[in-house]
User: What shape does this take?
Amino acid sequence: MSHAKKLLLVEDDAFTRFMMKEIITTLGVEAEYAVNGQESIDLINADPGAFGLVLMDLHMPVMSGIEATHGIRASESNPPRDVPIVAVTADVSYHDDAVVKELGMDGFAAKPVSPGRLLDLVTTYCQVA
Assistant: This one.
């Protein structure tokens, strides 16, 4: 399991991104942000190993979170996982660990993500300052 300090939040909705960013900041975790799946792949490929956790929205323009996860997993050099990816979605059809694991993800967080759930994810996967 990776314990890099940085977190990558991939979220196209500006309000949701702002609210999650506020919580992440209070936890003392360094974070980068992407607004679609393609941006997430570009950030991960630009600095492999930098991220301890990716919080991935599933439904986004340009490239969905599912497509991005497949792209990230295909490019990893240490199968089956280099970076933990957690689905962040309001879509209840993905609120099941078995379903998201089949997609190559490590878990899910239901939207709206509570501060407690976000804290659990961050402390599990990221170094907290």
About this structure: Residues 14-26 form the longest helix (13 residues).
